[in-house]
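Message: I would value a second opinion on how I read folds in token form. Give me a protein, with the fold worked out from its sequence. Write it directly below this note and I will take it from there.
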Amino acid sequence: MMRRPVSLGILALGLLCLSCQRHTPPPAGHPSPPEISSALVTPAGQTTGRDLLGQVQTDPRSTSQVMARISGISVLSIDHFPGDRVRRGERVMVIMSPDFFSAESEFSSLLSSSPGGDVRGLKRLAIRKLRLLGASREEIDRLEKTRSPTDRYEVRAPRSGTLMRVGPSVGTRVAIGDLLFVVSDLRHLWVSAFLYPGENAGLSKGTPVQVFPLHDLSRGVPGTILRVAPFIDPQTRTIPLRIGIDNSGNLFRPDAWVHVRIPIRPGGGEPLLRLSAGAVVRRADGKTGVFLLRGTQPPRFVPVKVLGRDKGEAVVSGNLAAGDRVVVRGLLPLLAEENARIAGEGGG
């Protein structure tokens, strides 16, 4: 009669003991090991690339800003507007200028004067003055034939290209030094990009790159690094990079965002490896590395050189091999322990 209650009591007591064992906290001074997960290291190939975001700019060497060389009381007409293509010597605008009329009248009076003295030298000086003011060869030829000065100051394009900006509007006054228009040859462009410190290793003037439209990676053009800045931008904490591209195919426009791919080649025969960017940490002493897992050994810090980052992955070189596994979760306790270790070695 009493066997069943006794059996049930023994069973309940056993379950209670088992539950206590499962929830027994670890002894003091022995914290639970962190939960760790890892990711695979894979080969990146002998030639891979780092991808950057860049912005297209006009090339100052292929751009001209036309300033007013003479004052004018009114802009009479504008023949071309931003976005229009112009040829070298083509008229862009006409300004009414009494000062230009005075310069032409001076030359016209010399043409009508009788020969004698240094008239020839004065004519040369008058022509030079007109040319400095921006008068074209055709305008001077017209004045020599008609000897009729005009106050119409024609401003012409100094190079073939695309009008990027027009300063005044019709009817406005113009002062000496005012910006009239900007013309740029868009066959030659610059791309401005930025690198994180350490990613500029091996890059120098002349390094070839590829530049793609942001939303069409199938249409790229070759480019060349023109300059790697010798400083870090204090605002962005990055290293400015300047790239030159040939835009003869009219694929890019100034101010557009583009995709830049810079080739990464191994140095010293070291293989390039690809791993999760989240596995890369920086120790207190500034060294960059990962925590390597091999076999049953505990995770250990291995220095690596980060050559590029893209889409959550990093391209590195170092004492790693394809097929290794690196810690991607549980890094903070490992990094704290590593920093404490090197601090102890430094203090010792």
In short: The CA atoms of residues 119 and 143 lie 17 Å apart.
